[in-house]
Amino acid sequence: MPLTLTLTEGVLPQGTENLAIAKITDAMLKWHNLTGNETMKSNITAMIQVLPKSATYAGGKEFSGAWVEWKVPSFAFTDRDVQIGFGQDVTNIIYELSERTQPRENIYINVVHAVDGSWNFNGIAMTNEQITQAIAAN
Description:
Layout: E1 2-8, H1 17-31, H2 38-42, E2 45-51, E3 57-58, E4 61-62, E5 66-73, H3 80-97, E6 107-114, E7 119-121, E8 124-126, H4 128-136
Parallel strand pairs: 1-2, 5-6
Antiparallel strand pairs: 1-5, 3-4, 7-8
Helix pairs in contact: 1-3
């Protein structure tokens, strides 16, 4: 389940991006009651993009932002409590790692759902049911 963390250069101190990925991954697992599930954890991948301020905008003007985007099966992040709790946790993670300099209102989180059956999990195209069975077997 790909996680993409996109940051304007300078939002996080250089070298803390890896810690951000680890903490965001742990928050996702926690909010889905999957902490310690190695099948799920091993299928979470991540990419970090650090862009110059001249490449990040809000309202058509340059600014410094942080974006967290997940691409997940359609059963993930569907519970409102999970959405709210995860959002709060991730906002706090980025805020704290930025040494409390990144404004919370400039930390953005979104989730993109995959079409059922198109998800490649453990190297095999699986349906939501097959994925939940694989996770449950762990």
